[in-house]
Amino acid sequence: MELLGVILCGGLSSRLGQNKALLKLRGSTTLLKDTWELLGSVTPSRILATREPEPYLEYPYILDAGPRIGPAGAILTALNYAAANGFAAILAVACDMPFLNVAMLLRLVEAFNLSLPTQLETVWCAKTTQYLQHLTAIYRIQARPYFVQRIENKVYALQKMIPNSLQKRVYYTAQEAHYFHNINTQENLSQALQILQSAN
Question: Tens digit of pLDDT for each residue in 7-57?
Fold first, then answer.
């Protein structure tokens, strides 16, 4: 089943004070370009989900035209687009994870391919804390009614969208947690730069 890769880049980046998708941590390439190429090694079908397409016009995008309710609205928009265009599911990835790699995405896709049709979300889960990485997950198009119902009830947190019983969890270790490091604040950015510097 072909996946639609979706990069979520609709946030305001208000805590960081600059557009995190356009950060350049590795030479001249942006985080967005790195993520775009990363997704391309997993699925040829890719798109951005954004509310403000102006900075991203070189990429195909879908416009999240709903109320500003965070990534839940963008994922629902992407699921609707995927359903209308013959995709079985979306592989959602945040635009601000500089250490996510192909191996981790392929493990997620493999788990999705082995999941039951009733498992609507294939999601990374920390072994020790059970923390779920909903911004690096695969959602079947059949998950749409859950998003619609929650959003209609003004519930916008991703962790409350899909019931636990309908999830396929893929476990990662404490040593793998850095793959999910995201950049929301200046402190997060400093930490990412330190990790990159120590790796060189």
Answer: 998 665 556 667 788 888 777 688 899 999 999 999 999 999 988 888 888
Give the number of C-alpha atoms closer than 13 A to the C-alpha of residue 93, restricted to the C-beta side. 38
- The interaxial angle of helices 71-84 and 144-152, nearest 10 deg, is 140
Burial (CB < 10 A; 0-12, 13-18, 19+), residue 24, is exposed
- The CATH code of the domain at 3-199 is 3.90.550.10
| Global confidence as pTM | 0.91
Please spell the DSSP secondary structure of 67-120, one letter per residue: -S--HHHHHHHHHHHHHHTT-SEEEEEETT-TT--HHHHHHHHHHHHHS-TT--
